[in-house]
Structure formats: C-alpha cells, structure tokens
Specification:
Layout lengths: L12 E12 L2 E12 L3 E5 L6 H9 L6 E6 L2 E5 L2 E2 L7 E4 L11 H6 L7 H11 L15 H13 L5 E5 L7 H18 L2 E6 L2 H7 L2 E6 L2 E6 L1 H6 L4 H6 L4 E8 L2 E4 L2 E4 L8 E6 L4 E4 L5 E9 L3 E10 L2 E11 L9 E6 L4 E5 L5
Length: 358
C-alpha cells in the first residue's frame, strides 16, 4: 500500500506536482503521482529503471506535455492539460545525465548562456567561483573531466537564480570514486544556494546521501515518501525495504501478535492471527551473542571495507539449515566452520502480509 504525500499549501512549496499521469501511446508510465519540494529542500525521486521518474521530472520541467494533473512552481500554476508555460518561462535550473554543455562555447560562456539580466558576466563569474571552476573559465567542455563538466552544468543551472532545480541522474556518468567526491560538493552547493531541488536517481545510497526527503516510485506510482531514516527503518512495503539494502527473507504466520522465524520471534503489529506473512530482516539485525540459544555455522566471512559480511547456516535440531547473512561494523572474520551464537534486533525486522493465495 502506497503512502500518500500531503501536498500542503502549494504557495509555500518551490515545486508541487499534483496527480500527474502520463502515457506514451497506450503505455501508462506515470500514474497519479504527487510530490512537493520545499524551499531549500532536496527531494530525491528514487526507483528502478523504467518506473517513470525521469518522465515525471521532464513533465515538471515542461519538456513533456502535461496530460493529466497540475504543476506549480514557486506558487504559480505553470501547467494544466492543454495549457502550459514553456520550459524557459518556468524558472527551472536543469542538469542532465550528459550535462548538455555547448561544445562551441567556453566554460564562462556556457554559464552566461541562461542569464538574461544586466550583469550576466559578473553573475557567471560568481557562479564559477562558487563551484570552484574560476581557473577554467576559458576552457572548453572537451578539455574538462567528467566531474568538472558536472560542476559547470550546475553553475549554469544556478546562474539564472531558478525557482527550483531539476537534476536527472547527474552523477551517473562518473566513476565511483569521482562520483562520491562530486556529489558531496554538489550537496553543499545546492544547500548554500537555498533553492529547492528535485533529483532523479536509481541509487538508494545516493538518495540517502543527498536527500532531505525521498519519494519512492514503483511502476509509475508513489510507493512511499519520507526522510531517509523513515524509509530505512520504517518501510511501508517489502519493495521499499529491499530497495534500501539486502535482506534475509523468510515466511510464516502471525500467532499471538508475532511471527516465529529461525532467527527468533518478530512482532507483527496490526496483523490478525493466522495471517500469512513474509519477514524481511536486515543483515545488521543479526548480532553475535554469548548465549547459544540460537546458533549458526560460519560458511564464509568477507571484509567489505567499513563492514564485514558473514555467510551463515543456521543450526537446527536436524543440522545446518537456513542460509543467512550477518553484517558487522569493522573487521570481523571468524573462520569457516566456527559456531556463533545469534540474537535478533527486531527493530530491523519487517513483517508484511503476503498478498493473494499462499
């Protein structure tokens, strides 16, 4: 069940997308989506490829015609079906996956391009200083690295003082090491600008790093919206729980307000006894215990940098059973064949009813 978003006062938000649906031919790609972006807020639109997130951003920008719903920017109604302001009149700053810099213009000219008021050269110089690209003002896009091009694209988007920023997978073209550094820089630049931002990404870690709030999409619909902490620790659906990290999965039935699992009992609030459920348990919810009430045999242990991942076979009366993963902070590499006592942190175990016949 999707968690709907309270749109609040349209005039108080930088961006309001209200009950938007969009089709390509007979294919419905966005289905009644609503979201808001507040002043100075970064909202990430997160979901798997093909879920409609980039289409929704393009509708908000005016790059796709609005078919159903309404779009407000800075409190102004900018689009209804059949009536819409063009993109250049909406006051949006756009940054795309490929940065879309003009190859025949140098860096300073690229940033100047969207600034219409008097003093455009000074504004462009100011924005280049803000993104740390002053020394590259006379350079051309082909002379820049991917990270440098990304910063120029951001400077160009911010130079006209947009009412809202729209970023479509802005870091996807960067290698992992550069992506981590550049997105940290961009986060601070966006926050310093004070402009509301909607950013599309398919990377849950990136969304958690960048966002004040995350809107999760699935198959064109809103799945859940909330802060990174709310979505990680209180997922509304199994889809959201799995989206934010690996889980150990098992099934059972509710009895006495809880579900018995090989890892221990898990509370099942608001579900009737007898309900068939699936239980999703994060690897970090499994912890080593001095007690051997429940135990598991180590099959493998791998250091993953900041954490260690332990492959376990849970021990039962009939011998090794369920395969599971346990994640431990730092370096913890028990040898294969070692037996560990286990305890379960139930705050990181989530119970969802199984829909349909089981």
């Amino acid at each position: 069940m999707a968690v709907a978003e309270d749109l609040g006062d349209s005039a108080a938000a930088r961006l309001v997308v209200e009950e938007v649906s969009h089709r390509y031919g007979k294919l419905l790609v966005v289905d009644g989506m609503s979201l808001t972006v507040g002043d100075g807020e970064i909202v990430c639109l997160l979901g798997p490829s093909g879920c409609g997130k980039s289409t929704l951003l393009r509708v908000a920008a005016g790059l796709e015609p609005l078919q159903e719903g309404r779009v407000f920017i800075g409190g102004e109604l900018v689009a209804t079906p059949g009536r819409a302001l063009p993109p250049e009149a909406r006051g949006v700053g756009l940054v795309f996956q490929d940065y879309a810099l003009f190859p025949h213009l140098n860096v300073l000219q690229n940033v100047e391009f969207g600034v219409r008021e008097i003093g455009r050269r000074g504004r462009a110089v100011e924005m280049l200083a803000r993104v740390g690209m002053t020394d590259y003002a006379a350079s051309y896009p082909h002379e820049l690295s991917g990270g440098e091009q990304q910063r120029v694209a951001l400077a160009r988007a911010l130079a006209p003082t947009p009412r809202v920023n729209l970023l479509d997978e802005p870091f996807s073209g960067l290698d992992t090491r550069l992506r981590h550094r550049v997105r940290d820089e961009v986060l601070h630049i966006l926050k310093e600008s004070g402009t509301g931002t909607l950013m599309v990404t398919h990377d849950p870690e990136e969304a958690m790093f960048m966002a004040d709030r995350i809107t999760v999409m699935r198959a064109g619909r809103l799945e859940q919206v909330g802060t990174p902490s709310e979505l990680y620790f209180s997922p509304a659906t199994a889809f959201v729980a799995e989206l934010f990290g690996e889980v150990n999965r098992c099934e059972g039935r509710v009895e006495g307000g809880q579900v018995a699992t090989p890892f221990g009992a898990v509370p099942a609030r608001d579900l009737s006894d007898g309900t068939a459920v699936e239980v999703l348990i994060r690897p970090e919810a499994l912890r080593q215990s001095a007690e051997m009430t429940r135990s598991a045999t180590v099959e493998a242990a791998r250091l993953l940098g900041r954490t260690s991942l332990i492959h376990l076979a849970l021990n039962t009366n009939s011998g090794p059973g369920v395969h599971a993963h346990m994640r431990v902070p730092g370096r913890f590499l028990p040898p294969r064949g070692m037996t560990l006592g286990l305890e379960l942190d139930t705050t990181q175990a989530f119970v969802f009813p199984i829909l349909g016949p089981k």
